[in-house]
Amino acid sequence: MKSINVDMQDYFVKLAPDFSVFDMAEKYFYDNDVPEGVFENVFSYHSNILANAETTTTFYRGMFLIHSASTEAIEIIGASTDEYTIFPYNCGTNSNAQILIAIQDSSIIIKSDAVIDMMIGVAF
Fold first, then answer.
1. For residue 86, which of 102, 69, 104, 105 has the smallest C-alpha distance?
2. Which DSSP state fits 19?
3. Which sequence spans correspond to the domains of the chain?
4. What tens digit of pLDDT does each residue of 38-89 get?
């Protein structure tokens, strides 16, 4: 799994919330049986996103935990590499998990070369 924009990775991580927010968001969606999509303009939850499908978010600044069965490339459509970073994240349940942190002037549109099993997003 390749990290993208390693030079600015520390900058993005310092701007983003603590990664534990993903656990809280996932628990909330499961416990309250909230349907997929955006909740309170702060959290998003999507599952079973097909390969090469574009997922448009309402977030301009966001952090995403992406679970995939593959380490194929994930990218943000229309963004230059200094607007986001992607790096591997070992959360215990999926060794192919990745964190994507982005700051843009428009909605973040995520695309993956592989199927995304689950994606949790947090706006900040």
1. 102
2. T
3. 6-123
4. 888 899 999 899 999 999 999 999 999 999 877 678 889 999 888 999 998 8
